[in-house]
Design a protein that fits this description.
- It is elongated and about 55 Å long.
- Helix content is 74%, strand content 0%.
- By secondary structure, it is mainly alpha-helical.
- The termini are far apart.
- 36% of the residues are buried.
- Helix 1 runs antiparallel to helix 2.
- The chain has a single domain, classed as Ferritin (Up-down Bundle), CATH 1.20.1260.10.
């Protein structure tokens, strides 16, 4: 058995590190958006309560299920995944959950912006993965962009009068 444990998957260490740094931000963005969505699920009020409560539950469940594949891709590339609130706070591009729950319409607006930012993060990392010929990461990112863009569209639809 060889003692050399270096990762030899056809992607340089520098490329793997750049991709991992991006995936770490995507992980932090996803977790932050998950927490915000779950908070809104608990605290939504008003005439759209049932619709939003149910929609937010489906959305936070999807986000929760997305966290593990992102972290496992980081591990597959040979690095440790961030996993603390302190790390996520440093890495995320999203604001923290509001201390006082906003009105339902503001919740929807916040989530639209959040999903759009996460899609933009994934799109930025996609360029790195594509350049490195890293198809597994590119596939993961394509799926995330699709989900976040569709979710943003559905939430925006609620804001039309």
């Amino acid at each position: 058995m060889a003692k050399n444990n270096a990762i030899q998957i056809g992607i340089t260490e520098k490329q793997r590190l750049e991709i991992t740094n991006g995936l770490s931000q995507l992980l932090a963005d996803t977790y932050t958006l998950y927490l915000t969505t779950h908070n809104f699920h608990w605290n939504v009020t008003g005439p759209q309560f049932n619709t939003l409560h149910t929609m937010f539950m489906a959305q936070y469940t999807e986000l929760w299920n997305a966290v593990d594949p992102i972290a496992e891709r980081i591990r597959s590339l040979g690095f440790f995944a961030p996993g603390s609130y302190a790390q996520f706070a440093k890495l995320t591009s999203l604001p923290d959950v509001p201390a006082k729950p906003p009105k339902a319409t503001s919740m929807v607006e916040t989530l639209v912006k959040g999903h759009e930012k996460v899609a933009a993060t994934a799109r930025r990392i996609f360029e790195l993965a594509d350049k490195a010929n890293d198809q597994p990461t590119a596939d993961l990112l394509t799926q995330r962009m699709d989900i976040h863009e569709k979710t943003a569209w559905m939430l925006r639809s609620l804001l039309e009068s």
